Amino acid sequence: MSNQDQQPPWGKKHKPQTPEEIVAQLINKLQDFFSDKKKPPAAAGDNQGPSRPPSSPFANVGKLLTIVLIIIVLQGVYSSFFKIAPSEVGVILRLGEYSRTTPPGLHFKIPYIDHLYKVDVENIRKEEFGFRNRTPGQQTTVDRGAFASESLMLTADKNVINVAWIVQYRVADPYAFLFKVANVRQAIRDNSESVTRRIVGNMDFDYVLSNRDLLAASVKKELQEQLDKLFPKGVPGVSIGTVQFQDINPPDQVKPAFNEVNEADQDMKRLVNEAQETYNRVIPKASGDAKKIIEEAYGYQSERINDAEGETQRFNDILKEYKNAPEVTRKRMYLETMRKILPTVESVYVIDKDQQAPIPLLNITSAAGLSVTQPQQTDSTQRK
User: Fold this and answer.
1) How far apart are CA 59 and CA 34, in angstroms?
2) Cα–Cα separations (whole angstroms), residue 249 to 54, 80, 153, 205
3) pLDDT tens digits along 340-378
4) Which residues contact 244 (CB under 8 A, 6 or more apart)?
5) Domain residues of the chain, as ranges?
6) What is the pLDDT of residues 162-175, one digit of tens each?
7) Residue 123 contacts residue 89 (beta carbons within 8 Å)
8) 125-257 is classed in which CATH architecture?
9) Rounded CA gap, 83 and 104, in Å?
10) For residues 193 and 163, is the Cβ–Cβ distance under 8 A?
């Protein structure tokens, strides 16, 4: 059987294919519904009875009100159910007054009485100062030229510096974020510029260049305090996540002079480091040598004192023995002294008072390698 045979006897229904045809068809149906279509007048020979009276002018108004009421009811039923995305929360106002905050999921509200506001609380919002990131396609570009008024600041030492930074924040309290401050984004921008300019203005140029992390921490802390004052006490509307300084440089007009100053500063630091290295190498060595000399002097002092005390004690002991036996002690001292002196004497001459010439003493033990030299006895020495 062909498709033509399967068509209904009243023919194939024409379906509108474009939105214009759908709207035109809907308008035609409404016109047909509200128009007062009269039947054509009957022929002269027809027997159809009395004609129908004309319809009431309020009949069309009633139909219109019925359709409007149906539309309002359907719209209310449709709007009474709403869905909150996982990263959002819903704030419900009932007759303009705060009612509740709904978590993610499917919820119900009273139509035409409750009003819903959806707030994204998980998304990290970002404000850029001194530049803007442009993404015309797949490539991101940075535009700085039109935002110099945001980044130019004056430091405490009367130098101009170019500071570009980013403030990232998220919604902490949805109701306070929506209704306690008229324009939260503008409030964050104004307060961030005010806090940053004040902190940079209290610091020197070199300190700002070399301590951007401390600068960012100070700006974050004071910016959060300033924003908390805009909201009711204990209900912060936003939470500052990160303050990051992207670029801190001198203006383009003074960059050549700044580079020269920076090079001179680097040379100065290099010379200081070299001098410090020389100081660390020479001074400790000199200090060590000085301490060595001082310790040697202390040791020599102790040695001399101990030797003197020992000699004094030895002399006192000898004196004590000398007083007890003078002759024996004198002879012993003489022998001990000669025992020490004679081994160092190379030639010994013995002079007798009765002889005219000295008699040399032959040192035989020195040739034999003995440690003690004994004098050769002569008749005169023996007699002596």
Assistant:
1) 9
2) 88, 56, 11, 10
3) 887 887 777 777 777 667 666 666 555 544 444 444 444
4) 165, 166, 168, 216
5) 60-120, 125-257, 308-341, 345-378
6) 999 999 999 999 99
7) no
8) 2-Layer Sandwich (3.30)
9) 7
10) no
